[in-house]
Specification:
Shape: globular
Number of helices: 0
Largest sheet: 4 strands, antiparallel
Strand content: over 45%
Strand order of the largest sheet: 3-4-5-6
Order of helices and strands: EEEEEEEEE
Length: 104
Amino acid sequence: AEGKVVALDAATGAVKGSVLAPAHEVDIIAWNPTLRHVYVPGAKVMAIVGVKRDASMAVLSTVPTADAAHCAAADVHAQVWLCDPAKGHVLVVKDTTPTTAPAR
């Protein structure tokens, strides 16, 4: 409900990074490994979260969406596909947000 994104260590389960995204009522997020972006869709807005190699995160931008657009899928063309259940549509958003610089 709070729109929090958390990166966990796969071996230990330890929290490696987290950020509060300005999206609420989040159901299904998406990940673009090339851009290192997590797409966090919620009621009326989708947050694009950048994840550095050290798992630190930041909200890079937000995109207005539709009411109840709580699910996302990412493709290899830097596009995010969002559901619009109220209208029975699928929305496509091109991710033009700059990628995060890898942590050194």
